[in-house]
Specification:
The chain has 441 residues and is of the alpha/beta class. The protein contains 13 helices and nine strands.
């Protein structure tokens, strides 16, 4: 097969530019204080990718108190391209974000402090430094460092708790980015955000809501038999229940959690069993609201998240109104769904920050585009921009928590979204890039 001279010249120029970019980028990374890097992209990859380790203070206002090492990745597309900073809420997810794709942007993907590998060398978590103020200061420090390499426009984005993080980051450091694109970001108004109860009373059809309720009642009515089956399940999965105190209590938590998990992640009412078989109903419960999430092992996995929910960011609870006569382990006030680690010093929930953020978003929260799912339970605590700001909210019809994406919007909504991004930032959105699926290609 013959290769034309023009194609050979193009390949040569592409290779030369890539080599030049690599040398310049690595010089820039080398010159950044407190940053180490390792190239992890393969020779055939379209874009260069690096693993980053960034030394961060435990306390940004008192750096003498010590440090931890925060992990991140960098996907480089060009020095003239915009840069996206992903404000993860949990671990460092290795994926291609749709914002980075749509904007053709460089991407800095940052693990949340004290999650995954981003923990102090001691392995123990210094709970006093696990605050939203400190976490947003992490992203600000990274932004200020990497502006020495990327001087173009900056965009922040995140999903779920990561989207919530994007909102907090915009609040504390509004000048760091030109545009914020949070996905499915709640802003709870208390430790028990009761807006969720209204959501459960109105979402879907009456028939669907009744099927969910009847499934919960059937399981609670057959609790003794269900727990006997779950003992074998727990033994096989090596689960323990010392935090809640009892497998039965964890079972009741899972049953109460079912509507939230159903609307957050599933939403297919035809699949709900009709309460004729304990095995069938219990299987349905474990697929949607697994009792493992309320085991010591499940709670430990999210202890950082639960600590922040219980102290600053807020969360939700379980309305017992229709279930009290079926429950064996819960009386009195509605139980909360946040489970702060017992190793952390007790600290009461403080609603001050979220109240301030909510007011600021209404008065001054400009250049933010929110995306929510039409049937996602978290939309009940979603942010609705006021007419005082230029920000906008898009509600993706029928979308769950994980499907509230630009790629799943109706075409007319996509066009409106693209126009809004351009109006707020001057950046061009290329929807064709959403077809690119593999990291580095």
């Amino acid at each position: 097969m013959r290769i034309s001279l023009s194609l050979l010249l193009s390949l040569f120029l592409f290779h030369a530019i890539a080599q030049s970019d690599e040398a310049a980028l690595e010089r820039g990374l080398y010159n950044l204080p407190n940053v180490t890097f390792k190239k992890v992209s393969a020779p055939g990859d379209r874009y260069m990718k690096y693993e980053l380790i960034i030394r961060q203070p435990l306390d940004h206002w008192h750096p003498e108190k010590g440090y931890f090492y925060q992990h991140a990745t960098l996907l480089h597309k060009g020095f003239s391209r915009p840069t996206v900073i992903e404000t993860q809420g949990y671990w460092l997810f290795d994926h291609r974000d749709e914002v980075e794709k749509m904007l053709g942007a460089n991407d800095i993907n940052v693990e949340y402090r004290f999650y995954g590998k981003s923990v102090p060398d001691s392995g123990s978590i210094p709970w006093d430094y696990l605050t939203i103020e400190q976490a947003t200061a992490d992203w600000h420090a990274i932004n200020q460092l990497f502006r020495n390499i990327y001087s173009g426009k900056w965009v922040s984005t995140g999903v779920s708790k990561g989207g919530e993080s994007t909102v907090y980051y915009k609040y504390f450091y509004p000048k760091d980015v030109d545009l914020s694109l949070p996905y499915v970001a709640p802003l709870d108004n208390s430790i028990e955000d009761k807006r969720l109860y209204h959501f459960f009373d109105t979402i879907g059809t009456p028939e669907c809501r009744n099927k969910i309720f009847q499934l919960q009642v059937f399981l609670l009515q057959h609790e003794k038999e269900a727990i006997e089956k779950l003992k074998w399940y727990s033994k096989g999965a090596r689960l323990h229940y010392t935090y809640t105190g009892d497998l039965g209590r964890s079972f009741e938590y899972a049953v109460l959690e079912y509507p939230f998990a159903f609307w957050q992640n599933y939403g297919l009412c035809d699949s709900i069993p009709t309460g004729t078989s304990l095995e069938e109903d219990l299987d349905a419960l474990l697929k949607i609201s697994d009792v493992a999430a309320f085991s010591d092992e499940g709670l430990k996995e999210f202890e950082v998240h639960y600590y922040q929910a219980a102290t600053q960011s807020g969360y939700y609870g379980y309305d017992l109104t229709r279930f009290r006569k079926y429950l064996h382990y819960f009386t009195g006030e509605n139980p909360l769904s946040s489970f702060p680690p017992k190793s952390a010093p007790p600290k009461p929930f403080d609603p001050t920050l979220n109240a301030k953020v909510s007011q600021w978003l209404a008065d001054s929260g400009n250049n933010i585009i929110y995306i929510y799912g039409g049937i996602d339970a978290w939309t009940s605590a979603g942010i609705i921009p006021s007419d005082k700001v230029n920000s906008k909210r898009f509600l993706v019809p029928g979308a769950t928590h994980g499907r509230a994406k630009v790629k799943n919007m109706p075409q007319a909504m996509q066009q409106e979204y693209v126009a809004k991004v351009a109006a707020l930032s001057g950046l061009e959105v290329n929807m064709d890039n959403l077809q690119t699926a593999k990291t580095g290609h």
